[in-house]
UniProtKB/TrEMBL annotation:
Organism whose genome encodes this protein: Sphingomonas oligophenolica
Transmembrane segment boundaries: none
Pfam families: Amidase (PF01425)
SUPFAM superfamilies: Amidase signature (AS) enzymes
Domain of life: Bacteria
Residues in Amidase domain copies: 23-420
Name of protein: Amidase family protein
Length: 439
């Protein structure tokens, strides 16, 4: 069984294990396993060992290094790491000026005693749901190496699911934490927009970008969230399921799993968001426009240095007329108001993360309305409407030992994240959701 972050921290604080030995074991696991997975882009041996020794020094002096004492973790390769270029997954940034300091999230993790061990693979500039990267390779799903890990935080998800690390940080713009969490069978958090510090994180779309953790237990996820700055407000747990858009184009086994979960909870009312298709389109448009505008100077100066799969999408976004962007932005306010009304009656809404199991790397498509569409652009069709209005979401894995993972979204409202964690804790305790290690 994968060792939890909480168990590691407790053992290190009590002096039963040294943080140095934990770090050395994590480094050894990465060296043994990463070749088959392709999750790690840089192994930070020297830094990890130094941070681990610092934790041990605090313990030896009778101090408490923090709630993540000695816990090894990795970060998506768009967090500033002092002394290293922030590549944002792009070959053209390998020669960027080294970061002068750590991202705020890394500083908070270090302050809690965690030990940074690696940077992790991603789609270039976080634009995709596949973690197929022309420069740094494809990250493979630990449950089946022939399948995608999802993206754009695929390296973070695969590093945790494969047991290389107990925790990892990623970013989520339109589903980039929730999609790989679902496909790799993990817990992942997309926090309420703007609720966690983004300083030192390479930006993609300011309107939607957020950071969050991956973990193999809801307790570890909550612990990391609190370290990063999450505040656990009290809340009830009135639950419903999202229908309409969120029930179309999903696999039969996923429908049956949600039905069973509903029965386990005593039956769930169905609710629907209005005009979800329009919300998803508006989010798609805003993403393309903001991403295109951000990268336009480099697109003009050195277009051939971009990953072709990223470059063409960014160019298309940069060409979108401003009135279209403004119309999408205006609709966001309308959509947010309509969704907020539903949360007057419900604390948590349940929906799938992805409609099916991970696609094959050699056949990277999913089926939507009877048509095969590219997974890189469309795996987030169920996550994107939620990012559009900044809702907090926990991705939870259905407990499926020996089967390819499927995941659900527990959707809430800002300031009431406690309801999401409370429901996840109950479902995990009941054996409905939970991490199943790769066979």
């Amino acid at each position: 069984m994968t060792e939890t972050a909480a168990a590691i921290a407790e053992a290190v604080r009590a002096g039963r294990r040294s943080a140095l030995s934990v770090a050395e074991e994590a480094i050894a696991r990465i060296r043994a396993r990463n070749g088959a997975i392709g999750a790690v882009t840089r192994l930070l041996d020297d830094r990890a060992l130094a941070e681990a020794r610092a934790v041990d020094t605090i313990v030896a002096a009778g101090g408490d290094p923090g709630p993540l004492a000695g816990v090894p973790y990795g970060v998506k390769d768009l967090f500033d790491v002092a002394g290293l270029p922030n590549t944002a997954g792009a070959a053209m940034r390998r020669g960027a000026a080294p970061a002068t300091g750590d991202a705020e999230a890394i500083a908070r993790m270090r302050g809690a005693g965690a030990v940074l061990v690696a940077t992790l693979n991603m789609d270039e500039f976080a634009y995709g749901f596949a973690t197929v990267n022309a420069a740094f390779g494809t990250t493979r799903n630990p449950h089946d190496g022939e399948r995608l890990a999802g993206g754009s935080s695929g390296g973070s998800a695969a590093a945790v699911a494969s047991g290389m690390l107990p925790l990892a940080l990623g970013s989520d713009t339109n589903g980039s934490i929730r999609v790989p969490a679902a496909l790799c069978g993990l817990y992942g958090l997309k926090p309420a927009h703007g609720s966690l510090a983004m300083s030192g994180v390479y930006p993609f779309v300011d309107s939607f970008d957020d950071i969050g953790p991956f973990a193999t237990s809801i307790a570890d996820l909550k612990l990391a969230w609190q370290v990063l700055g999450g505040v656990d407000g009290a809340s009830g747990v009135r639950v419903a399921r999202l229908g309409g858009w969120f029930e179309a184009n999903i696999s039969t086994e996923l429908v049956e799993a949600i039905d069973r979960l509903g029965a386990h909870l005593g039956g769930l009312a169905r609710v629907e968001f209005p005009e979800v298709d329009r919300a998803r389109s508006a989010a798609f448009l805003m993403t393309a426009a903001e991403g295109g505008a951000r990268h336009l100077p480099e697109l003009r100066r050195r277009p051939m240095e971009f990953d072709p799969a990223t470059r063409d999408r960014l160019i298309a976004g940069a060409m979108l007329p401003t009135p279209h962007y403004l119309a999408a932005q205006a609709f966001r306010a309308t959509f947010s108001g309509a969704v907020s009304a539903l949360f007057e009656q419900h604390d948590v809404l349940i929906a799938p993360c992805v409609g099916e199991v991970a696609p094959l790397i050699e056949d990277p498509f999913i089926t939507v309305d009877g048509a095969r569409v590219p997974a890189r652009a469309h795996l987030g069709r169920l996550t994107q409407p939620l990012s559009f209005i900044g809702l907090p979401v926990i991705a939870v894995p259905l407990y499926r030992p020996g089967k390819l993972p499927l995941g659900l979204q527990l959707v809430g409202t800002p300031g009431r994240e406690g309801a999401l964690f409370a429901l996840a804790e109950r479902l995990e305790a009941d054996g409905v959701i939970g991490f199943s290690p790769p066979a």
